[in-house]
Amino acid sequence: MSDREQQMEDLMLVERPEFERIMECVFGVQAHETRTYFQLHELPGSTVAELADELERDRSNVNRSLSTLRETNLVERERRLLDGGGYVYQYFAIPVPDAQERMHEAVDEWAETVHERIEEFGP
Q1: Which residues form the Transcription regulator TrmB N-terminal domain (predicted)?
Q2: Beta strands in the chain (DSSP E)
Q3: What are the structural domains of the chain?
Q4: Are 26 and 102 in contact (CB under 8 A)?
Q5: Fewer CB within 10 A of the terminal residue: the chain, N end or C end?
Q6: pTM
Q7: With contact defined as beta carbons under 8 Å apart, do 11 and 48 qualify?
Q8: Lowest-confidence region among 46-50, 53-57, 60-64, 101-105
Q9: Burial of 108 per CB tally in 10 Å (0-12, 13-18, 19+)
Q10: Mean pLDDT of 96-112
Q11: What is the pLDDT of residues 34-53, one digit of tens each?
């Protein structure tokens, strides 16, 4: 059983799981990554340095969180050119309704697998 499958199974044991916990299980992210996602909703277009200050975390840790969130397509990155030359990356979280839709799809897929397993059982 994969870690994600185990997380989904554990989640089913909780009567009323928190949205953040569902998000962590469905997308296979950690709590600090979920906090980063929600912080980006508060401050869209933030840089790694700005997020690190807001989250009170090291920039390298925030950068890793953003990489994970980008891999799961929960966060997008845009390059902004600076007036004095050079550039900086800005990060944007996908809208919550889009994340919710993806979560519904993942849970439905998991439930379908469970239903198939139930149907396999029997004489």
Answers
A1: 24-95
A2: 75-81, 87-93
A3: 3-120 (1.10.10.10)
A4: yes
A5: C
A6: 0.81
A7: no
A8: 101-105
A9: exposed
A10: 90
A11: 999 999 999 999 999 999 99
